[in-house]
């Protein structure tokens, strides 16, 4: 499949071009079939396509209040997730947009009620640790004394009042218990009665949400650059760095380091497949590295352990990161990570924050994507085609214990820090949108 | 509960607000706590402690803030001293006290509002705590998929709740290995019967067989246990035997999940098995008489052995406990 690498980029472009010309429903359907046929694949193209289609949903679908917008977005999102459940980024982007809508809606509502200054939720800004105690206090005294809270503006930015509080104090606070079975729509519906029928506000909300989605799109496009910014800190002169089937993120990371440092790069490659396009790609990467004066060594995956004792760092590009810190990456990475751990080499995972999923890997096998085994066995080889079952795993899950450092566009993180990144970027009530949506009419 | 207490106690409490510890003698917090636990089988120890403290607030008159805090503190100490294992209670009393202090810091002069809120909503808190258990089941049941096999022991209501929730979705499609405790045969029978009544196939094994069963390849896919208290480093204080199951599971690379409500989080950092918060005499050397075993013995499972905590707020790494405690206490010198 020599044309795949350029092919799916073309498909993405073609799809994005087609968005303007055709009705929304048709665009959604064409994206679904593109995803199903794997004509759009890989985290970044999937994320970009999802962001674009959700922007169309917000801009063009019919909605008259926040609830119906949330329903529209999550319904479309669920269709996309169903079309390609292996690509966790699709769900991530949908959650981000849902959270964005909730933020904007509560912000506008807050402006009329009191001066609750929740800043615009740009996707890239790190929300400071919010003092939840202040949040509950103002709410509590609202209801207990029916006095408007004096001075002390709540500086809660990310956790709006429609969000179930997650502090330990939740047990003793006044807000009604928001448990798992509460529909995520009920909260926003009851708390935003002023929205209905006010076209001016709807118009404002629409443009705010669209701006927010544009920012998400910008973020996705800048991820590689921002990750590469920490390359010089991570790669030291004289290092022996091993990369595995480098993605563009990894390539840019290495190239950025190559501008300033002298080190050696080992490129681990899967055994050559029939018609593989990958070697082609890596040639340009190798040329660029050589031009920068970096020694490049190609190694086959099989003899990896022989090199590992000399390797300082292993750099892996993630396709997705699950909530526990497990990394979905190209097949072969897990063995490399384990070998690195065995020899004490650091395992560094590169990933945009948009690839970080709030989902727990309840069923690890469902995360693995199976590929086309015809790259190994030709259909001309009759006995093998009939007599043997040949499976090719395209991705696999790297156990979180094997990973030392996660580098995202927001910086360098440890495994324990991922949970706060997740809570900064996703709202709790959206975490399971692809499941609760099924119960809706 | 608190209403009836209030009705009984109000006449007493309207006496002169002298500073001579007015009601300490009349209110027996230990008895209240035991009554509460006995009356409601669904109540956890931390919540029962909180409920007793609310009942206490009902009896003492609303005097100064510091007097109230003092009373709450002294009664918490009384309560904690009355039981053998203080950690579960400490989780509740600390949370309650911190809630009082934090709400006082927030807004001056509205102590009465806080007090009224607490007095009025005593039952709400209890029902919320019980709802937390359903939250755990919702958060974690998807671990238990078709064809999986779960090993569990003890009588944690969170775990049985979670398994029952999973049974609702895939009845008879997953299996449970229950580790029997022969000292508590009755309890083991009850739990196994409960699980079987939900259509879950259960295999009972003695404690001595755990390592063997885990060594049978792919027969056990995960371990679920409950906890009496979750310590600030993410470890758990739990029924004795949990630690060895966790060790065996780690050795066999089987994920070890703990189902616990967030109100069981406690500011305690155990260093090792000797440091579980109180003196526990498991070793009773004797040349003549049979050894005595402590009732309700516990052990400490360090966070390294725990894959995930399943709380009503979702599935988290053990480090989550630290974050949450830091969030409300501000410091960790429990």
Proportion of strand residues of chain A: 5-15%
Annotated CATH topology of the largest domain in chain B: Rossmann fold
Largest sheet of chain A: 7 strands, mixed
Strand order of the largest sheet of chain B: 3-2-1-4-7-9-10
Shape of chain B: globular
Instruction: Please write the CATH class name of the largest domain in chain B.
Output: Alpha Beta
Question: Mean of the pLDDT scores of chain B?
Answer: 85
Chains forming the largest contact:
A-B, 33 and 47 residues
| Unreliable spans of chain B | 1-23
Structural class, from helix and strand content of chain A?
A: alpha/beta
Largest sheet of chain B: 7 strands, mixed
CATH-derived topology of the largest domain in chain A: Four Helix Bundle (Hemerythrin (Met), subunit A)
Backbone CA Rg of chain A: 24 Å
Shape of chain A: globular
So how many helices of chain A? 16
What would you give as the CATH superfamily of the largest domain in chain B? Answer: Translation initiation factor eif-2b, domain 2
End-to-end C-alpha gap of chain A? 42 Å
The total strand number of chain A stands at 10
CATH class of the largest domain in chain A: Mainly Alpha
Order of helices and strands of chain B: HHHHHHHEHEHEHEEEHEEEEH
Q: Please report the total strand number of chain B as a whole number.
A: 10
Could you name the key traits of this structure?
heterodimer; A: 441 residues; alpha/beta; Four Helix Bundle (Hemerythrin (Met), subunit A); 7-stranded mixed sheet; 3-stranded antiparallel sheet; 10 strands; disordered N terminus; disordered C terminus; B: 334 residues; Rossmann fold; 2 domains; 12 helices; 12% strand; globular; eIF2B_beta_subunit (chain A); guanyl-nucleotide exchange factor activity (chain A); Translation initiation factor eIF2B subunit beta (chain A)
In short:
The complex is a heterodimer of chains A (441) and B (334). In chain A, 47% of the residues lie in helices and 10% in strands.
């Amino acid at each position: 499949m020599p044309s795949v690498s350029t092919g799916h980029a073309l498909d993405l472009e073609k799809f994005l071009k087609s968005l303007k010309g055709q009705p929304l429903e048709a665009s959604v359907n064409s994206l679904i079939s593109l995803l199903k046929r794997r004509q759009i694949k890989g985290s970044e193209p999937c994320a970009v396509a999802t962001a674009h289609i959700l922007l169309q949903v917000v801009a063009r679908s019919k909605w008259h209040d926040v609830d119906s917008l949330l329903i529209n977005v999550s319904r479309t999102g669920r269709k996309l997730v169903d079309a390609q459940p292996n690509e966790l980024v699709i769900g991530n982007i949908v959650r981000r947009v849902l959270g964005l809508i909730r933020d904007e809606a509560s912000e506008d509502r807050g402006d009329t009620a009191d001066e609750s200054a929740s800043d615009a939720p740009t996707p890239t800004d790190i929300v400071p640790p919010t003092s939840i105690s202040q949040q509950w206090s103002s709410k509590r005294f609202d209801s207990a004394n029916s006095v408007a809270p004096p001075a002390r503006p709540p500086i809660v930015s990310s956790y709006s009042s429609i969000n179930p509080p997650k502090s330990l104090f939740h047990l003793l606070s006044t807000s009604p218990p928001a448990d798992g079975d509460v529909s995520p729509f009920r909260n926003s519906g009851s708390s935003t009665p002023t929205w209905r029928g006010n076209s001016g506000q709807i118009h404002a909300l629409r443009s705010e949400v669209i701006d927010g989605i544009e920012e998400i799109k910008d973020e996705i496009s800048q991820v590689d650059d921002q990750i590469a910014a920490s390359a010089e800190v991570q790669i030291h002169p004289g290092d022996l760095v091993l990369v595995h089937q480098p993605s563009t993120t990894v390539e840019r990371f290495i190239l950025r380091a190559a501008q300033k440092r002298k080190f050696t790069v080992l490129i681990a490659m899967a055994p050559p497949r029939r018609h593989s396009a990958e070697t082609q790609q890596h040639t340009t990467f190798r040329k660029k590295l050589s031009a920068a004066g970096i020694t490049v060594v190609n190694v086959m995956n099989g003899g990896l352990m022989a090199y590992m004792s000399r390797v300082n760092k292993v750099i892996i590009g993630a396709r997705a990161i699950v909530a526990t810190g497990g990394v979905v990456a190209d097949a072969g990475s897990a063995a490399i990570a384990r070998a690195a751990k065995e020899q004490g080499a650091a395992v560094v995972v590169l990933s945009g924050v948009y690839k970080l999923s709030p989902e727990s890997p309840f069923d690890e096998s469902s995360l693995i994507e199976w590929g086309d085994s015809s790259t190994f066995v030709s259909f001309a080889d009759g006995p093998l085609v009939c007599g043997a079952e040949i499976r090719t795993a395209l991705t696999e899950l790297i156990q979180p214990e094997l990973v030392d450092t996660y580098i995202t566009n927001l910086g360098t993180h440890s495994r324990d820090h991922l949970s706060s990144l997740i809570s900064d970027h996703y709202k709790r009530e959206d975490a399971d949108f692809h499941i609760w949506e099924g119960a809706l009419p | 509960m608190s209403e009836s207490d209030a009705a009984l106690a109000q006449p007493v409490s309207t006496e002169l607000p002298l500073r001579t510890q007015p009601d300490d003698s009349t209110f027996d917090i230990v008895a209240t706590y035991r009554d509460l636990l006995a009356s409601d089988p669904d109540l956890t120890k931390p919540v029962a402690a909180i409920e007793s403290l609310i009942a206490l607030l009902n009896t003492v008159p609303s005097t100064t803030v510091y007097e109230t805090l003092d009373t709450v503190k002294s009664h918490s100490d009384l309560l904690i001293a009355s039981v053998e294992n203080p950690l579960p209670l400490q989780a509740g009393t600390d949370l309650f006290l911190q809630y009082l202090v934090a709400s006082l810091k927030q807004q001056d002069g509205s102590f009465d509002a806080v007090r009224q809120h607490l007095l009025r909503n005593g039952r709400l808190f209890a029902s919320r705590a019980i709802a937390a258990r359903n939250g755990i089941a919702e958060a974690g049941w998807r671990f238990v998929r078709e064809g999986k096999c779960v090993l569990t022991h003890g009588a944690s209501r969170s775990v049985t709740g979670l398994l029952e929730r999973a049974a609702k979705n895939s009845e008879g499609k997953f299996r449970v290995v229950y580790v029997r405790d022969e000292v508590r045969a009755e309890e083991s029978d009850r739990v196994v019967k409960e699980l079987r009544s939900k259509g879950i196939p259960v295999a009972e094994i003695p404690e001595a067989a755990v390592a063997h069963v885990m060594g049978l390849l792919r027969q056990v896919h995960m371990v679920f246990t409950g906890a009496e208290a979750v310590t600030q480093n993410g470890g758990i204080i739990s029924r004795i035997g949990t630690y060895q199951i966790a060790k065996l599971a780690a050795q066999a690379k089987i994920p070890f999940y703990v189902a616990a409500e967030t109100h069981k989080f406690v500011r305690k950092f155990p260093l090792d098995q000797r440091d579980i918060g109180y003196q526990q005499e498991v070793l009773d050397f004797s040349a003549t008489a049979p050894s005595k075993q402590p009732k309700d013995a516990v052990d400490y499972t360090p966070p390294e052995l725990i894959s995930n905590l399943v709380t009503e707020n979702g599935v988290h790494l053990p480090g989550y406990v630290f974050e949450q405690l830091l969030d409300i206490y501000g410091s960790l010198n429990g």
